[in-house]
Amino acid sequence: MSKEQALITDLNAVGMPEASFEELRSNPSWQALVDAADTLPRDFERLIEYEFDADRFTGMTTPTLLLAGGENPQPLIGATETVHETLPNSRMVVFDGHGHRAMNSATERFVDEVLAMTRE
Fold this sequence. Notes:
Layout: H1 3-13, H2 18-25, H3 30-35, H4 40-49, E1 64-69, H5 74-86, E2 90-95, H6 102-105, H7 107-119
Parallel strand pairs: 1-2
């Protein structure tokens, strides 16, 4: 199996929506992802093993901007909501109608949100 086929298999296995998948394939970063495809099983395994401990982060007062694509699978949105509820100085923005890579599909809004955060 080629690295590209392995990457496609892994992305399908984690439930990437077709629209997000096609957007990713047209992105200049696609080749870098293909090149790193052999690391994905280990990366996914670590993600599955990770246990979030909110107590480790409740004292973190750094202003934090959390961005989520509204078309992401619910577990990703839920994880972002959990982090938002944990961090006392966070702001969460959901990009309705966009997926995991909203910085590419809603670039102007992404830039506006990041710049607004730096001005606060």
